[in-house]
Amino acid sequence: MARARAGSRASQVAADVGQPMPAGPAGRPFRIVAGGSGDWDDLATDEIVLVCPWLSGLDPLSGLWLSALPIHDCNAFIDDRWMLDAPAPLRERCYVGVFALDRLRSGQQIFGPLRDKGVSRLINLPSVGFFDGATAQTFGRLAFTLESEIAFLAQARAAGFRTALCARPDTPAPGQPFDFVLRHNGPGHPLTIAEG
Fold this sequence. Notes:
Elements: E1 20-21, E2 30-33, E3 48-51, H1 63-66, E4 94-98, H2 107-116, E5 121-124, H3 133-141, H4 146-158, E6 162-167, E7 180-183, E8 192-195
Parallel strand pairs: 2-3, 3-4, 4-5, 5-6, 6-7
Antiparallel strand pairs: 1-2, 7-8
């Protein structure tokens, strides 16, 4: 299970796995977990839980940012035995991170198995929005864009899932109904949650 303590070093990735993240100026508290049995302890009553099974085995300080690279099958947990085992009262605050631009699985190949695993809320995490500059331009030419991620989340809503969006702060507010927006400026910067 990937867990790390929140730190204050500027070089440390702000998304320390398993520990509460400080709320931004207008944000709500949240934590990012891999979804193991000990991840449900000590949650605040209003804390959102971003469940990212693909973090298991990745370095807790860099895994969030590395996860969007094409170095592994980020959504492989969908085909594995993984289940959302959060206690029932917490499930309404659990959003499972999926790579929305999965080229190995269609939306229906993602939504059906996730529903069977007890998932009812999704977020596009990791996101291609983690990248900027030349990398973002290259991804854009391959249709790996935030707009494509938003279209995936619209499909998820149509399939009955609640959704949240991961996007940079300079991204215009989407015209879609999201439960919240996880804002980021990339590695080394804090993540914040703003209401959708």
